[in-house]
Amino acid sequence: MAATIINGKELAQELRLGMKDEVKQLKEQGVTPQLTVVLIGDNPASKSYVNGKRKASDEVGILSNIIELPTSITEEKLLQLISELNNDQDVHGILVQLPLPEHIKEQHIIEAIDPSKDVDGFHPINIGRMMTGQDTLLPCTPYGIITMLQSKNIQIAGKHAVVIGRSNIVGKPVGQLLLNENATVTYCHSKTPDLKSYTRNADILIVAMGIPNVINEDYLKDDAIVIDVGINRVNGSLTGDVDFESAKNKAAYITPVPKGVGPMTIAMLLKNTIKAAKGLSDN
Ligand SMILES: Nc1nc(=O)c2c([nH]1)NC[C@@H]1CN(c3ccc(C(=O)N[C@@H](CCC(=O)O)C(=O)O)cc3)C=[N+]21
Question: What is the pTM of this model?
Answer without folding.
Answer: 0.97
